[in-house]
Design brief:
single chain; 310 residues; alpha+beta; 4-stranded mixed β-sheet; 3-stranded mixed β-sheet; elongated
């Protein structure tokens, strides 16, 4: 490399084998940091020029290939009169930009079009060539905690951010844990009159001790007595909207799932999932005298072995 020349990959902080997206992402970050309208520190504009030049070369397959072959001398084979490449300097309102034909990073239109498409900015008519660029504000993210019932029914919900801003957001029915809700234009403020970024609310559904969610279905445990499981019974089970009755068939064992159709979470197209009541046989911790006698009588006459089946 020539004396005083910094490797373009080093300038952007990417490895030599970096892909287009990695190079683009690195440039976007550095350009926002060192843009003259944002960063007033001494040397920021020179750093911005350096970053922009590195990106302009590495994003172009032909220029990148020549640069990787020739290094700092990659421009030696080009017309250095200013007709192409970066021979004409950076440009300060004279239309020359990095090249002399207005196609580089000057006021002739090349960089302004590029910057506008890349950042969503605009070009202003300033003598410096970069003043007047607007930059979109950064996106922000916050957490919105909701109950399982709120996630199921959806609807409007008011909430406040730590910075004191109040919002009302529409929660879609059946929203999932981790899903994001976008509030356009409610993020960080733009620079130089640029538009604000967006605010993304990441939904966190509070744990409900009654239900376990499986996609659009819900699972709830229902406790039954040994004789209910053996003889069959109709027992109440909790639902998102109150309670319902479920029939426990005779001879049910622990773990059996009983379906209540349409009592789950809303799904795509308005279809609702199901609620599954999972049977859990519960034995009394202490038996009354008569209960013990009946269990002893059952044990004496029954030939059922739960470890082998009948």
């Amino acid at each position: 490399m020539a004396v005083g020349f910094r490797d373009y990959y080093e300038v952007l902080g990417v490895p030599r084998g970096a892909g287009d997206e990695e190079i683009r992402s690195a440039y976007r970050k550095l350009a926002r940091e060192y843009h003259p309208d944002v960063n007033k520190d001494p040397g920021a504009e020179d750093r911005f020029k350096e970053v922009s030049e590195a990106y302009e070369v590495l994003r172009d397959p032909e220029k990148r290939e020549k640069y990787e072959r020739l290094g700092a001398n990659w421009k030696a084979g080009e017309d250095v009169s200013g007709a192409s490449g970066f021979g004409g300097g950076f440009g300060r309102g004279n239309g020359q930009g990095f090249g002399g034909d207005g196609q580089g990073f000057g006021d002739g239109g090349g960089f302004s079009d590029f910057f506008e498409s890349f950042f969503g900015g605009r070009q202003g008519g300033s003598s410096r060539g970069f003043e007047g660029f607007s930059m979109r504000g950064g996106d922000q993210e916050a957490t919105l905690e909701v109950t399982l019932e709120e996630a199921a029914r959806g609807g409007k919900r008011k909430f406040s951010l730590a910075d004191g801003r109040d919002f009302e957001v529409q929660i879609p029915p059946g929203v999932r844990d981790g899903q994001k809700i976008r509030l356009a234009g409610q993020g960080g403020e733009g620079a130089s009159g640029g538009p604000a970024g967006d605010l993304y609310l990441r939904v966190r559904i509070k744990r409900d001790p009654r239900f376990r969610r499986e996609g659009d279905d819900l699972v709830v445990e229902v406790s039954v007595a040994p004789w209910e499981a053996a003889l069959g019974a109709t027992v109440p089970v909790p639902t998102l909207h109150g309670s319902a009755k479920v029939k426990v068939p005779a001879g049910s064992s622990s773990g059996r799932r009983l379906r209540l159709r349409g009592e789950g979470m809303p799904g795509p197209g308005g279809r609702k999932g199901d609620l599954y009541a999972r049977v859990r046989i519960v034995v009394p911790k202490q038996l009354e005298k008569r209960e013990r006698e009946l269990f002893e009588e059952l044990a004496a006459v029954s030939r059922f072995d739960p470890r082998r089946g009948r």
